[in-house]
Fold:
Amino acid sequence: MTASGATRRHVALRYSALGTAAVLALALSACSAEEGSATEDSDTVSGDITLLTPIYEGAAGQRLLEDELLPQFYEQYPDVTVTVDYTNFARLNEKLTTGVVSGLVPDVMMMGVGWVEAFADKGVLANLSESGISVADLEKSTTPEIVQAGVWEGDVYGVPIMLDARFGVARMDLLREAGYDAPPSTWAELVEMAEALTVRSDSGSLERAGFDVLSLDARQMYETMLFSSGGTLFNDDNTAPAFNSDEGIEALESVVDLIHTSKVEDTGFSSTKETVNPLINGRAAMGIAHNNLWTQTLEAAPELLPELEPFLIPGDAPGMFVGGTLATMSKGSEHPAAAQALLEFLASPGPALAANEQRGNIPALTELLDSDYAQGNRLVQFSMENLDVAKREGGPSEWLGLRGEIAPAIESALLAQKTPKQALDDLADLFTSKMGG
Amino acid sequence: MSASTRPAPTTRLLRPARALPSAPRRPDRSRSQRKLSRAGWLMVTPAVAHIGLWTALPVLATFALSLTDYNIFDAPRWIGIDNYIQIWNDPTFRLATWNTVVYTFWTVPVSMAIAMVIAVALNQNLWLRTWYRTAFFLPQVTATVAIAMVWLWIYNPQQGLLNAALSVIGIPGQAWLANPDWSLWAVILVGAWQGIGIKMLIYIAALQNVDNSLYEAASVDGASVVRKFFAITLPMLKPATFFVLVISIIGAFQVFDQIYVLTDGGPANATTMMTYEVYRSAFQNFQMGLASAQSVCLFAFLLVMTLISRRATRGDDE
Structure:
């Protein structure tokens, strides 16, 4: 993109953001006039507020937020000052915990899927439905799969900004070398292709994994497999674990077999701490990946972009894991109008598109799915095309206290310390006890 | 000196003074003592307030919270010793405790022994002695996170330095941090390496207080270097050894940073430690009451280990 192109895009985004925020404010003022919110005239919205965010990560994210987005926000709300507290999803819990304990909950918080339930249930988050944001309205403008992640007991507590999905990705150049012209369409085919694509040295050490399952967090990897097997994490009313069903056990057995029977990847060959995804540097021919693999490849090896071919993990039912980021507001904010104004601004098309582009994620606003960014990103497109089979994690309000237990259980099966059934049954017992069952 | 030349008047003056009944002077002394006492209390008050507010109160609060169900959102609810029962029945915390004991058992004596040898060597008149001392102390003043990042690279199964070095001598590489058979040892190695600097520094300081005449006398008696080390150096370093042992045990039991960065307690909890479980309970699972109970267990372990090490080294206040 040329400099003038970039400038035009920024200007367009800027006006788009200001326009949308204004429209949202007007719409909300029609819905509700009593609460102190962004429904008030922007001249009356004032105060020093804090924003806790795991997105806008790194220097580029910080530049985007502070040099581009917040100046636009200040143009509309000159009497509001925003102090930003940057973190990442791994550390978000700590920030929120210390904030709640010390009574210093940030005014606006970005949360992941599965987080809103706990904080809404405990009265930490503001009920945005009371400020005029309804589920029906959100579903008109936002991908419905993600809207429910911000809903608790029928009310809106979080406004989606972005989605992120996990699915299979194949390096077509490597597949073609091995004589395949398309990604696998059945599990048996996947196993056969993975075995054929695995490369070992004469001494037997692994040089290329046929199918990489270790670069992704063990919990998300398993959930992708689980959803592709037609399984679910919890029962319909989220009162009991359901991942140790036949489908769940089969899903984990499939992964264990890939490592121990088909030997398409060795334990330790890759990890979440890898700086370069093995699909990019050719150390894996296929694997389960995050949609931001596209952005990573764009930065590291753009010539490989045409070779990245996404596919749904073939299982008993088509499925895909989807997460996301939602903007929430503290119930105890001293400046609710300013906080809501910022929330609406960040969730509006311009800023949301910029945030998604910086992070390589899928815009939650359906109108942005036609944007140049979304249209030019094959993995984002694929995610959008398959959102109807996507499932998200979370559900019960205890989720945040449960999710950390999943990875060690999955790892114990991958390391053959337990059988998949033992590992999942033990995990289900632990979940049941923690859920008060 | 003859009796007539003695300063009799002075003696006479003193005698009546000594003979004076002390009762009338008591109020003066008592007042003065009270004044001194008040001044003393005034001076220690800031320290007492500081310790009370920032140490005693949190410790008491931790004990109290350990008997409650506290999830940060709701008020703490008294549950007696339920948290302790949960800890007792929790296989992960038992594994964490065992891992912590193993980590301490290997990092403390190994790094103490290496530190002592290095300290003795660097107490000689070596060329570039200061440079060596600085080099050995450097890991101590470097952020653990930075160190852990370097070790992450060293342990990388594909591009890591360790596997590359092993391949030169024909030993197959390992997935050091991903293999549960190796991961704890990999963490122990980092812990032992990082702890050498401060121990070496303490030993060097202690060595410089050892009287050279002892070594000279031993040399005159024909003692070998090894004999001098065991007969003079080691006994003279006993107070320092006790101090190093106690701070090392406390440090080892509180290991957290390198676990947090290197392994996240994995794979499959193979490297989780007591402090890491406290962190997980508090900040990942929002179980502050349970985390407090785990902290109390950690405190109890440290107390017992300190008493054992005091007994083992027959440490005193010298």
Notes: Residues 92-313 of chain B form a domain with the MetI-like fold fold (CATH 1.10.3720.10). Confidence is low (pLDDT under 50) at residues 1-17 of chain B. The longest helix of chain B spans residues 26-65. The beta strands of chain B are 68-69, 77-78.
